[in-house]
Design a protein that fits this description.
single chain, 265 residues, alpha+beta, BirA Bifunctional Protein, domain 2, SH3 type barrels, 7-stranded mixed beta sheet, 5-stranded antiparallel beta sheet
Length: 265
């Protein structure tokens, strides 16, 4: 697959991208099934930590739980980065940390965006979905243990397919933006803490997360498999990345798996 790399991505040559992000391993493609899958192949071939895979289009992009992620050409940023953590990673802490750092960097670079984090792995703006994060950890014999973090950000609303609902693009919020600048923000956000991800969030991190927590104080439904959903109030995020849920008439509980949807207050 590596022989199918493109000469330029977002107007930048491969050499320019490697220089821009200060690493030797940047792989840019036109159309691929999934940047996470390619990053996994590179990890198993012992690619170094910090390796980046990005593309113009994904034909089999996916999100959490195997859900499809629409990735048409030119509509968004599709980028995956490889990490080699020293210690084991704790889901959903990885996507919570990544979400906070990405929202922080996007807000810094694109004033007025107002990006927020929806537990466990979504980025929100204007109460709609701006992007998503997919973290996949594995260990593979000669390839060693690794973590792949893929990010999809909606950039150009005119290129999003008509069937996508509930989404918002960067250009909807701040006007036209250069794709390379979005990539700069994502690379910087992913590298803020993921190379040395903490085992839990400290007080300062929890304060920052509290400011960016889109679900906090909203009524939500928590579903696990086919069980009756639990309805309650999202009460914040625990130091290990778990969602704190206060069910109606029940005690505060920690949520680490399942799906969350916003209910009616």
């Amino acid at each position: 697959m590596l022989e199918q790399q493109v000469d330029r991505w977002a107007g930048e040559s491969g050499t320019a991208l490697r220089t821009r992000w200060q690493r030797d391993s940047v792989y840019a493609f036109g159309s691929v099934p999934s940047t996470n899958d390619l990053a996994r192949e590179l990890a198993e071939a012992r690619a170094p930590a910090g390796s980046i895979v990005l593309c113009r289009e994904q034909t089999a992009g996916r999100g959490r739980g195997g859900r499809s992620w629409s990735s048409p050409p030119g509509a968004g940023l599709y980028l995956s980065m490889l990490f080699r953590p020293v210690a084991g990673v704790v889901p959903p802490l990885v996507t919570v940390v990544a979400g906070v750092d990405l929202a922080r960097e996007l807000n810094r670079r694109f004033p007025g965006l107002g990006a927020a984090v929806k537990w466990p792995n979504d980025l929100m703006a204007r109460d709609r979905k701006l992007g998503g994060i997919l973290a996949e950890a594995a260990g593979s014999g000669d390839g060693g243990a690794f973590l792949i973090v893929g990010v999809g950000i909606n950039v150009d609303p005119d290129r999003l397919p008509g069937h996508v609902t509930g989404a918002v693009a960067l250009a909807d919020c701040v006007g036209p933006v250069a794709l390379i600048e979005v990539a700069d923000a994502v690379v910087a956000g992913l590298e803020r803490r993921l190379p040395r991800i903490p085992p839990s969030l400290d007080a300062a991190s929890l304060d920052e997360l509290d400011r960016l927590d889109w679900l906090r104080n909203r009524t939500v439904e928590h579903r696990v498999s086919d069980r009756e959903p639990a309805v309650g109030l999202a009460a914040g995020i625990a130091p290990d990345g778990a969602l704190l849920l206060r069910p109606r008439g029940g005690a505060l509980r920690r949520v680490v798996a399942g799906s969350i949807s916003v209910g009616r207050n």
